Each structure stands twice: as structure tokens, then as C-alpha cells.
Amino acid sequence: MPLRVHVLSPQDPSHVALIPKIAEIHLAAWLSNTLYTKIYYGPPTSHRAVGEAMGQRHLDAFTSNPSSNFAVVVDDDIETTSTNIENGDDLILPARVIAFLKYDVFATVEALNGRKDAGKRTWPPYTNIALVSSFWGDIVKTRERFSKQLGPHVNVDLLATLPSHHRRGAGKLLMDHAMGKIDELHLPGTLEGSPQGLKLYSSVGFEPVGDIWVDLLRFEDGGDKGDEWAKAEGRVPGQGEGWYKHVAMIRQPRPQ
């Protein structure tokens, strides 16, 4: 049976129950990324708290933020010991969820003014606060710039696939779903893409409009060597070793 996309509803308790699985996928995907291994620099025993913090943010967004939307990819061929299958294809078993998408629809100026995705966050232990504050601050500035430049739009906030299920097309299915929403609403789409996702995002029509650079050599072992170190070393974004780049991207809606 092929992979399928399932849109989640906060009114469905079985969908709310998928949030821990979504957090599991999120954590696994981020820990395969160089930047996030620097942000969450602690030992494996610290990762549980990271996952729990992710899960709480997802739960809050899913149940309390009207702009937030979630969808998952389900692989019904994955064997599971669960016997709770009385609802057939309509029941989503957590063990069969391999990828998820979170996107925010800001269809009106009022929705933009009340957006919550770029607000303040709290971070679990073994988070490099200096690094995440710098990076997240740049993400917030990018989103504020998008809001002023574009007005109402759709922001693709998170796309993650379990590393063991990469290159099976789950990410493409979810992006196609998001592109359908962008075109249906006839709104621009925005995102900040990691290096791993740029090929996929470009393939569905996103174009780069700016770079978000992170100096990984400055932020090591949970610390920050500081501005003076960066100046003394002559650190210039993109020049030399140790730089990580997120890319801000925009896609215009297409006629249906």
C-alpha cells in the first residue's frame, strides 16, 4: 500500500494522541542535522527532555493556535503489535507515522498580527542558549520581514521525516499538500530551509530570497566564544570552515 497523507484535526482525540510521535520524529530529524546537534549538545540522556519540550510546543500549537495546521504521512505496511484497528484506514496508528508537516495559515492581517509561531520560547536543559537565541532571533526577524513584505501568507514551519524513512517520498507528499493549500488560498508561501531540504523545496517552486548564517565554530560545547573572538578570527559569513546556512524562501501561488 502506498504512503498516504492524513490531515490532523485538534477535535479528534486520536489525532491529539499522535503529538508524542510527532515530537519523536521531530527530535530524530533534528539530531541528524549539524546545527541542532550544536544546539542540543548534551548526552543522549538529555534528549528525552528535548523531545518533551518539542511535544509541548506542538500540543499547544495544535490545540490552541487557530493558524497552525498539521499533517502526517502514514505507512500502512509497517507492522505493529496494536490490535486497535476497528476503524480500519481511518485510524492512524503512531507506529505507522513516518513524517509530519506543520504549517501556519495567516489568511488575514488580523491573523498576522496575532501570529504565535515567532514568539518567545523556553528551552530544556543542555540547550546552547546563546546559539539558539542567535539563530531563533534571526528566524523571527525573517518571519517579521515576510509579514511586512507579503502580508497574508502561508508559512511552512516544520517538515520532518524519520531518518530511517528518508528518500521514500514522504517529504514530497507533504510539500505537495502544502502547495495545494497555498494555491487554493492564492497566498504566497514562505519557509526557512535547512541544507537537507533545499532540493525538495526548490522542486515545488520555492525560490531563495535570503540566507541565515550560523557560525558553528563560535558556539561549541554549549558555549559562546563571543563577538571579540569572532572579530579577532576575522569570521565572515560563508567564508572559511564552520559555517551553517539556513535559506529563506518564497513561493508565489499558481493558478488552479
UniProtKB/TrEMBL annotation:
Residues 155-211 form the N-acetyltransferase domain. It comes from the Eukaryota. InterPro entries: Acyl_CoA_acyltransferase (IPR016181), GNAT_dom (IPR000182), Trichothecene_AcTrans (IPR052523). GO terms for molecular function: acyltransferase activity, transferring groups other than amino-acyl groups. PANTHER family: GNAT FAMILY ACETYLTRANSFERASE (PTHR42791), N-ACETYLTRANSFERASE DOMAIN-CONTAINING PROTEIN (PTHR42791:SF2). This is N-acetyltransferase domain-containing protein. It comes from Exophiala bonariae.
